[in-house]
Amino acid sequence: MVRNEHSPYLENIAAYAVGALDAEEIAALESHLQTCASCRTELAEYRLLSESMLTAVPPRQPSVALRNRIQSRLPGARKDARPRWNWSPGFTAGALAFVVLLALNVYSVSQMRALQLQQTQLARQYQSGQTVLAMLSYPATERLPIASESLAGSFLLDKDRNLAALIVWKMPQLPEDQTYQIWLIAPQGDRTSAGIFRPEDGQAYTTQIIFPKQGFSNYVGIGVTVEPAGGSDQPTGERVLKVDF
Amino acid sequence: MDHSDDIDLVGRVAKGDERAFLALYDRHVSRVYGLTLHILGEPMLAEEATQDTFLKLWSRARQYLAERGPFLSWLLTIARRVAIDRVRLESRRPVLTDANDPEDVWQNTPDLGTVSEETRWRSLHFAVQSLHPDQRRVIELAYYQGMSQSQIAEVLGWPLGTVKTRLRAAMENLREVWNEK
Predict the structure, then answer these.
(1) What is the ipTM of this complex?
(2) Which of the listed residues A40, A142, B59, B178 has the most CB atoms within 10 Å of its CB?
(3) Residues B50, A17: C-beta atoms closer than 8 Å
(4) With an 8 Å Cβ cutoff, is B131 touching chain A?
(5) Closest residue by Cα to residue A141 from A167, A168, A123, A171
Protein backbone atom coordinates (compact mmCIF):
# COMPACT_ATOMS: atom_id res chain seq x y z
CA MET A 1 0.00 0.00 0.00
CA VAL A 2 1.54 3.33 -1.01
CA ARG A 3 1.56 6.34 1.26
CA ASN A 4 -1.20 8.16 -0.68
CA GLU A 5 -3.69 5.46 0.23
CA HIS A 6 -2.84 6.01 3.90
CA SER A 7 -2.92 9.77 3.81
CA PRO A 8 -6.49 10.29 5.11
CA TYR A 9 -5.71 8.00 8.03
CA LEU A 10 -2.11 9.06 8.65
CA GLU A 11 -3.29 12.60 9.13
CA ASN A 12 -5.52 11.44 11.94
CA ILE A 13 -3.21 9.03 13.73
CA ALA A 14 -1.46 11.69 15.81
CA ALA A 15 -4.78 13.22 16.84
CA TYR A 16 -6.12 9.73 17.63
CA ALA A 17 -3.13 9.05 19.88
CA VAL A 18 -3.92 12.09 22.03
CA GLY A 19 -7.67 11.46 22.01
CA ALA A 20 -8.61 14.43 19.81
CA LEU A 21 -10.73 12.72 17.14
CA ASP A 22 -14.49 12.79 16.95
CA ALA A 23 -16.48 9.56 17.07
CA GLU A 24 -16.91 9.17 13.30
CA GLU A 25 -13.22 9.71 12.65
CA ILE A 26 -12.33 7.21 15.36
CA ALA A 27 -14.58 4.56 13.86
CA ALA A 28 -13.09 5.01 10.39
CA LEU A 29 -9.51 4.96 11.64
CA GLU A 30 -9.97 1.94 13.86
CA SER A 31 -11.51 0.05 10.97
CA HIS A 32 -8.48 0.88 8.87
CA LEU A 33 -6.05 -0.07 11.63
CA GLN A 34 -7.39 -3.59 11.69
CA THR A 35 -6.02 -4.23 8.20
CA CYS A 36 -3.00 -1.93 8.05
CA ALA A 37 0.17 -2.94 9.88
CA SER A 38 2.15 0.17 8.88
CA CYS A 39 -0.51 2.47 10.35
CA ARG A 40 -0.52 0.39 13.55
CA THR A 41 3.24 0.90 13.78
CA GLU A 42 2.79 4.62 13.23
CA LEU A 43 0.12 4.69 15.92
CA ALA A 44 2.32 2.74 18.34
CA GLU A 45 5.02 5.38 18.02
CA TYR A 46 2.57 8.21 18.64
CA ARG A 47 1.09 6.37 21.58
CA LEU A 48 4.52 6.05 23.09
CA LEU A 49 4.98 9.76 22.59
CA SER A 50 1.54 10.43 24.03
CA GLU A 51 2.28 8.46 27.17
CA SER A 52 5.57 10.22 27.60
CA MET A 53 3.77 13.54 27.46
CA LEU A 54 2.10 12.53 30.72
CA THR A 55 5.34 13.43 32.45
CA ALA A 56 6.10 16.46 30.34
CA VAL A 57 4.64 18.63 33.08
CA PRO A 58 6.56 19.69 36.17
CA PRO A 59 6.12 17.50 39.25
CA ARG A 60 4.40 19.26 42.15
CA GLN A 61 3.96 18.33 45.78
CA PRO A 62 0.41 18.22 47.15
CA SER A 63 -0.42 19.04 50.75
CA VAL A 64 0.70 16.64 53.48
CA ALA A 65 -2.95 16.23 54.44
CA LEU A 66 -3.67 14.47 51.15
CA ARG A 67 -1.55 11.49 52.15
CA ASN A 68 -3.43 11.23 55.44
CA ARG A 69 -6.79 11.50 53.70
CA ILE A 70 -5.93 8.73 51.27
CA GLN A 71 -4.48 6.57 54.04
CA SER A 72 -7.67 7.01 56.05
CA ARG A 73 -9.62 5.49 53.15
CA LEU A 74 -7.66 2.21 53.29
CA PRO A 75 -9.15 -0.79 55.09
CA GLY A 76 -6.33 -0.85 57.66
CA ALA A 77 -7.00 2.73 58.64
CA ARG A 78 -10.65 1.93 59.28
CA LYS A 79 -9.53 -0.84 61.61
CA ASP A 80 -7.08 1.52 63.30
CA ALA A 81 -9.91 3.99 63.80
CA ARG A 82 -11.31 1.67 66.44
CA PRO A 83 -10.40 2.82 69.97
CA ARG A 84 -7.24 1.27 71.34
CA TRP A 85 -6.37 0.67 74.98
CA ASN A 86 -3.80 3.20 76.08
CA TRP A 87 -2.65 2.51 79.62
CA SER A 88 -1.50 6.03 80.32
CA PRO A 89 -1.90 7.25 83.93
CA GLY A 90 -4.93 9.30 82.95
CA PHE A 91 -6.52 6.41 81.10
CA THR A 92 -5.77 4.02 83.99
CA ALA A 93 -7.32 6.40 86.52
CA GLY A 94 -10.34 6.81 84.31
CA ALA A 95 -10.66 3.06 83.87
CA LEU A 96 -10.42 2.50 87.63
CA ALA A 97 -13.03 5.17 88.27
CA PHE A 98 -15.25 3.51 85.69
CA VAL A 99 -14.81 0.09 87.36
CA VAL A 100 -15.57 1.54 90.81
CA LEU A 101 -18.66 3.32 89.52
CA LEU A 102 -19.76 0.17 87.74
CA ALA A 103 -19.31 -1.87 90.93
CA LEU A 104 -21.24 0.71 92.94
CA ASN A 105 -23.95 0.68 90.35
CA VAL A 106 -24.21 -3.12 90.41
CA TYR A 107 -24.25 -3.07 94.22
CA SER A 108 -26.95 -0.38 94.20
CA VAL A 109 -29.06 -2.37 91.77
CA SER A 110 -28.71 -5.54 93.85
CA GLN A 111 -29.61 -3.60 97.00
CA MET A 112 -32.59 -2.08 95.27
CA ARG A 113 -33.78 -5.50 94.15
CA ALA A 114 -33.35 -6.88 97.70
CA LEU A 115 -35.34 -3.94 99.05
CA GLN A 116 -38.04 -4.46 96.44
CA LEU A 117 -38.24 -8.16 97.36
CA GLN A 118 -38.37 -7.29 101.05
CA GLN A 119 -41.03 -4.68 100.34
CA THR A 120 -43.09 -7.24 98.43
CA GLN A 121 -42.78 -9.72 101.29
CA LEU A 122 -43.74 -7.09 103.85
CA ALA A 123 -46.72 -6.05 101.75
CA ARG A 124 -47.81 -9.66 101.45
CA GLN A 125 -47.32 -10.19 105.20
CA TYR A 126 -49.22 -7.01 105.92
CA GLN A 127 -52.05 -8.12 103.67
CA SER A 128 -52.09 -11.58 105.27
CA GLY A 129 -52.05 -10.00 108.72
CA GLN A 130 -54.94 -7.75 107.81
CA THR A 131 -56.85 -10.74 106.47
CA VAL A 132 -56.15 -12.71 109.65
CA LEU A 133 -57.26 -9.77 111.82
CA ALA A 134 -60.43 -9.41 109.80
CA MET A 135 -61.16 -13.11 110.09
CA LEU A 136 -60.56 -13.07 113.83
CA SER A 137 -63.00 -10.22 114.23
CA TYR A 138 -65.66 -12.00 112.21
CA PRO A 139 -68.07 -13.96 114.48
CA ALA A 140 -68.47 -16.94 112.15
CA THR A 141 -64.75 -17.62 111.79
CA GLU A 142 -63.71 -20.96 113.24
CA ARG A 143 -60.33 -21.21 114.97
CA LEU A 144 -58.99 -24.73 114.73
CA PRO A 145 -55.77 -25.95 116.37
CA ILE A 146 -53.01 -27.55 114.29
CA ALA A 147 -52.64 -31.24 114.98
CA SER A 148 -48.87 -31.74 115.02
CA GLU A 149 -46.34 -32.93 117.54
CA SER A 150 -43.62 -30.53 116.43
CA LEU A 151 -45.52 -27.50 115.18
CA ALA A 152 -47.92 -25.07 116.83
CA GLY A 153 -50.43 -22.76 115.22
CA SER A 154 -54.01 -22.21 114.14
CA PHE A 155 -56.23 -22.67 111.14
CA LEU A 156 -58.82 -19.90 110.72
CA LEU A 157 -61.79 -20.97 108.63
CA ASP A 158 -64.59 -18.78 107.29
CA LYS A 159 -66.89 -21.07 105.33
CA ASP A 160 -69.33 -18.22 104.61
CA ARG A 161 -66.70 -16.36 102.61
CA ASN A 162 -64.84 -19.51 101.53
CA LEU A 163 -61.66 -18.17 103.08
CA ALA A 164 -59.09 -19.69 105.42
CA ALA A 165 -55.75 -18.72 106.98
CA LEU A 166 -53.04 -21.13 108.09
CA ILE A 167 -50.78 -19.69 110.81
CA VAL A 168 -47.82 -21.84 111.85
CA TRP A 169 -45.11 -20.91 114.35
CA LYS A 170 -41.40 -21.79 113.90
CA MET A 171 -41.89 -23.80 110.73
CA PRO A 172 -38.50 -25.24 109.69
CA GLN A 173 -36.84 -24.02 106.50
CA LEU A 174 -36.46 -26.57 103.69
CA PRO A 175 -33.64 -27.26 101.24
CA GLU A 176 -33.83 -25.39 97.90
CA ASP A 177 -35.16 -28.45 96.12
CA GLN A 178 -38.14 -28.86 98.47
CA THR A 179 -41.29 -26.95 99.30
CA TYR A 180 -44.33 -27.20 101.56
CA GLN A 181 -47.60 -27.98 99.82
CA ILE A 182 -51.14 -27.52 101.22
CA TRP A 183 -53.79 -30.15 100.41
CA LEU A 184 -57.56 -29.98 100.76
CA ILE A 185 -58.90 -33.32 101.88
CA ALA A 186 -62.26 -34.51 100.49
CA PRO A 187 -64.57 -36.83 102.47
CA GLN A 188 -63.52 -39.77 100.26
CA GLY A 189 -59.85 -39.05 100.90
CA ASP A 190 -59.03 -37.31 97.63
CA ARG A 191 -56.41 -34.56 97.89
CA THR A 192 -56.56 -31.26 95.99
CA SER A 193 -53.61 -28.87 96.00
CA ALA A 194 -54.24 -25.48 97.62
CA GLY A 195 -50.80 -24.03 96.92
CA ILE A 196 -47.15 -24.27 97.87
CA PHE A 197 -45.10 -22.07 100.19
CA ARG A 198 -41.79 -21.61 101.92
CA PRO A 199 -41.38 -20.08 105.40
CA GLU A 200 -40.22 -16.49 105.19
CA ASP A 201 -36.75 -15.73 106.49
CA GLY A 202 -36.58 -13.90 109.79
CA GLN A 203 -40.22 -14.49 110.60
CA ALA A 204 -41.25 -16.49 113.72
CA TYR A 205 -44.49 -17.55 112.07
CA THR A 206 -45.80 -18.27 108.61
CA THR A 207 -49.20 -17.16 107.39
CA GLN A 208 -50.81 -18.62 104.28
CA ILE A 209 -54.20 -17.44 103.01
CA ILE A 210 -56.22 -20.15 101.25
CA PHE A 211 -58.92 -19.57 98.61
CA PRO A 212 -60.23 -22.95 97.37
CA LYS A 213 -61.88 -23.13 93.96
CA GLN A 214 -64.70 -25.11 95.49
CA GLY A 215 -66.32 -24.30 98.82
CA PHE A 216 -64.77 -25.55 102.04
CA SER A 217 -68.01 -27.50 102.58
CA ASN A 218 -66.67 -30.01 100.03
CA TYR A 219 -63.72 -30.85 102.28
CA VAL A 220 -63.19 -32.32 105.67
CA GLY A 221 -59.70 -31.07 106.43
CA ILE A 222 -56.33 -29.87 105.19
CA GLY A 223 -52.84 -31.31 105.33
CA VAL A 224 -49.34 -29.99 104.61
CA THR A 225 -46.62 -32.20 103.16
CA VAL A 226 -43.04 -31.73 102.05
CA GLU A 227 -42.80 -32.03 98.27
CA PRO A 228 -40.19 -31.49 95.55
CA ALA A 229 -39.71 -27.82 94.56
CA GLY A 230 -42.61 -26.75 92.34
CA GLY A 231 -45.08 -29.04 94.04
CA SER A 232 -46.71 -32.37 93.16
CA ASP A 233 -50.01 -33.51 91.70
CA GLN A 234 -50.66 -35.70 94.72
CA PRO A 235 -48.97 -35.89 98.11
CA THR A 236 -45.70 -37.82 97.94
CA GLY A 237 -43.72 -36.59 100.93
CA GLU A 238 -43.84 -36.47 104.68
CA ARG A 239 -46.92 -34.87 106.25
CA VAL A 240 -45.95 -32.17 108.74
CA LEU A 241 -49.39 -31.09 109.94
CA LYS A 242 -53.09 -31.82 109.60
CA VAL A 243 -56.28 -29.94 110.51
CA ASP A 244 -59.70 -31.52 110.54
CA PHE A 245 -62.77 -29.32 110.06
CA MET B 1 13.75 5.43 40.23
CA ASP B 2 13.89 1.67 39.84
CA HIS B 3 11.10 0.30 37.65
CA SER B 4 11.54 -3.20 39.09
CA ASP B 5 10.83 -1.81 42.57
CA ASP B 6 7.57 -0.39 41.24
CA ILE B 7 6.62 -3.79 39.88
CA ASP B 8 7.34 -5.42 43.23
CA LEU B 9 5.38 -2.77 45.11
CA VAL B 10 2.33 -2.84 42.85
CA GLY B 11 2.32 -6.63 43.14
CA ARG B 12 2.16 -6.27 46.91
CA VAL B 13 -0.57 -3.64 46.63
CA ALA B 14 -2.59 -6.13 44.59
CA LYS B 15 -2.42 -8.42 47.65
CA GLY B 16 -3.62 -5.67 49.98
CA ASP B 17 -0.27 -4.42 51.30
CA GLU B 18 -0.95 -0.87 52.50
CA ARG B 19 2.71 -0.12 53.23
CA ALA B 20 3.58 -0.91 49.63
CA PHE B 21 0.71 1.34 48.54
CA LEU B 22 2.05 4.23 50.60
CA ALA B 23 5.54 3.60 49.22
CA LEU B 24 4.16 3.96 45.70
CA TYR B 25 2.30 7.08 46.78
CA ASP B 26 5.48 8.64 48.15
CA ARG B 27 7.37 7.76 44.97
CA HIS B 28 4.90 9.05 42.42
CA VAL B 29 2.50 11.50 44.01
CA SER B 30 4.43 14.53 42.76
CA ARG B 31 4.04 13.27 39.19
CA VAL B 32 0.37 12.50 39.62
CA TYR B 33 -0.40 15.78 41.36
CA GLY B 34 1.72 17.74 38.87
CA LEU B 35 -0.30 16.29 36.01
CA THR B 36 -3.72 16.74 37.63
CA LEU B 37 -2.85 20.29 38.66
CA HIS B 38 -1.73 21.06 35.11
CA ILE B 39 -5.02 19.74 33.74
CA LEU B 40 -7.38 21.16 36.37
CA GLY B 41 -5.50 24.30 37.36
CA GLU B 42 -7.02 24.31 40.84
CA PRO B 43 -5.12 22.74 43.79
CA MET B 44 -8.24 21.48 45.56
CA LEU B 45 -9.60 19.80 42.44
CA ALA B 46 -6.14 18.44 41.64
CA GLU B 47 -5.85 16.89 45.10
CA GLU B 48 -9.26 15.28 44.69
CA ALA B 49 -8.22 13.86 41.33
CA THR B 50 -4.95 12.66 42.86
CA GLN B 51 -6.87 10.96 45.64
CA ASP B 52 -9.21 9.28 43.15
CA THR B 53 -6.23 8.14 41.12
CA PHE B 54 -4.50 6.48 44.05
CA LEU B 55 -7.71 4.89 45.26
CA LYS B 56 -8.12 3.44 41.77
CA LEU B 57 -4.57 2.15 42.09
CA TRP B 58 -5.55 0.50 45.38
CA SER B 59 -8.59 -1.22 43.88
CA ARG B 60 -7.15 -2.00 40.44
CA ALA B 61 -3.51 -2.86 41.17
CA ARG B 62 -3.97 -6.38 39.90
CA GLN B 63 -4.90 -5.02 36.46
CA TYR B 64 -1.41 -3.66 35.97
CA LEU B 65 0.67 -5.80 33.62
CA ALA B 66 4.39 -5.21 33.97
CA GLU B 67 5.17 -6.61 30.53
CA ARG B 68 3.09 -3.88 28.93
CA GLY B 69 5.09 -0.93 30.21
CA PRO B 70 6.28 1.15 33.14
CA PHE B 71 4.04 1.40 36.16
CA LEU B 72 4.29 5.20 36.18
CA SER B 73 2.89 5.42 32.65
CA TRP B 74 -0.05 3.30 33.71
CA LEU B 75 -0.64 5.37 36.83
CA LEU B 76 -0.41 8.69 34.97
CA THR B 77 -2.78 7.43 32.29
CA ILE B 78 -5.30 6.81 35.04
CA ALA B 79 -4.58 10.24 36.53
CA ARG B 80 -5.05 11.97 33.19
CA ARG B 81 -8.34 10.21 32.61
CA VAL B 82 -9.59 11.04 36.11
CA ALA B 83 -8.61 14.70 35.74
CA ILE B 84 -10.09 15.07 32.25
CA ASP B 85 -13.32 13.46 33.44
CA ARG B 86 -13.37 16.10 36.16
CA VAL B 87 -12.76 18.85 33.60
CA ARG B 88 -15.66 17.56 31.53
CA LEU B 89 -17.85 17.33 34.60
CA GLU B 90 -17.04 20.88 35.63
CA SER B 91 -17.55 22.32 32.16
CA ARG B 92 -20.42 20.00 31.15
CA ARG B 93 -18.63 19.21 27.95
CA PRO B 94 -19.68 16.01 26.16
CA VAL B 95 -17.68 12.92 27.02
CA LEU B 96 -15.41 11.92 24.16
CA THR B 97 -14.03 8.57 23.22
CA ASP B 98 -10.47 8.66 24.43
CA ALA B 99 -7.77 6.55 22.85
CA ASN B 100 -5.80 6.90 26.10
CA ASP B 101 -8.42 5.29 28.27
CA PRO B 102 -6.47 3.32 30.91
CA GLU B 103 -8.74 0.36 30.25
CA ASP B 104 -7.62 0.28 26.63
CA VAL B 105 -4.08 1.57 26.86
CA TRP B 106 -2.53 -1.87 27.04
CA GLN B 107 -4.09 -2.90 23.79
CA ASN B 108 -1.74 -0.79 21.73
CA THR B 109 1.21 0.17 23.89
CA PRO B 110 4.60 -1.03 22.61
CA ASP B 111 7.21 -2.47 24.92
CA LEU B 112 8.97 0.36 26.71
CA GLY B 113 11.48 -1.82 28.46
CA THR B 114 14.48 -0.69 26.41
CA VAL B 115 13.68 3.01 26.48
CA SER B 116 15.45 5.40 28.79
CA GLU B 117 12.20 7.06 29.79
CA GLU B 118 13.44 9.62 32.23
CA THR B 119 15.85 11.30 29.83
CA ARG B 120 13.26 11.44 27.09
CA TRP B 121 10.55 12.77 29.34
CA ARG B 122 12.75 15.63 30.49
CA SER B 123 13.58 16.57 26.92
CA LEU B 124 9.93 16.25 25.95
CA HIS B 125 8.96 18.72 28.61
CA PHE B 126 11.25 21.30 27.11
CA ALA B 127 10.10 20.34 23.62
CA VAL B 128 6.47 21.07 24.53
CA GLN B 129 7.48 24.39 25.99
CA SER B 130 9.47 25.16 22.83
CA LEU B 131 6.56 24.58 20.44
CA HIS B 132 5.11 27.50 18.54
CA PRO B 133 2.47 29.06 20.83
CA ASP B 134 -0.39 28.08 18.49
CA GLN B 135 0.80 24.48 18.34
CA ARG B 136 1.31 24.34 22.09
CA ARG B 137 -2.19 25.72 22.61
CA VAL B 138 -3.71 22.97 20.49
CA ILE B 139 -1.70 20.32 22.31
CA GLU B 140 -2.78 21.72 25.66
CA LEU B 141 -6.47 21.64 24.76
CA ALA B 142 -6.34 18.25 23.08
CA TYR B 143 -4.08 16.34 25.39
CA TYR B 144 -4.46 18.05 28.73
CA GLN B 145 -8.08 19.17 28.46
CA GLY B 146 -9.48 16.21 26.53
CA MET B 147 -10.96 18.24 23.69
CA SER B 148 -11.51 16.96 20.17
CA GLN B 149 -10.17 18.89 17.19
CA SER B 150 -13.67 20.11 16.33
CA GLN B 151 -14.17 21.35 19.90
CA ILE B 152 -10.84 23.14 19.79
CA ALA B 153 -11.83 24.78 16.52
CA GLU B 154 -15.03 25.97 18.12
CA VAL B 155 -13.37 27.21 21.30
CA LEU B 156 -10.54 29.04 19.53
CA GLY B 157 -12.60 30.16 16.54
CA TRP B 158 -10.13 28.62 14.12
CA PRO B 159 -11.02 26.63 11.01
CA LEU B 160 -11.06 22.89 11.71
CA GLY B 161 -8.40 22.33 9.05
CA THR B 162 -6.10 24.78 10.82
CA VAL B 163 -6.54 22.95 14.10
CA LYS B 164 -5.78 19.62 12.46
CA THR B 165 -2.71 20.99 10.73
CA ARG B 166 -1.36 22.58 13.91
CA LEU B 167 -2.02 19.50 16.01
CA ARG B 168 -0.33 17.24 13.50
CA ALA B 169 2.63 19.59 13.17
CA ALA B 170 2.98 19.79 16.94
CA MET B 171 2.97 16.03 17.29
CA GLU B 172 5.51 15.61 14.51
CA ASN B 173 7.80 18.13 16.17
CA LEU B 174 7.53 16.35 19.48
CA ARG B 175 8.17 13.01 17.83
CA GLU B 176 11.34 14.32 16.25
CA VAL B 177 12.61 15.43 19.63
CA TRP B 178 11.54 12.13 21.10
CA ASN B 179 13.36 10.11 18.44
CA GLU B 180 16.55 12.17 18.71
CA LYS B 181 17.14 10.98 22.26
Answers:
(1) 0.80
(2) B178
(3) no
(4) no
(5) A167
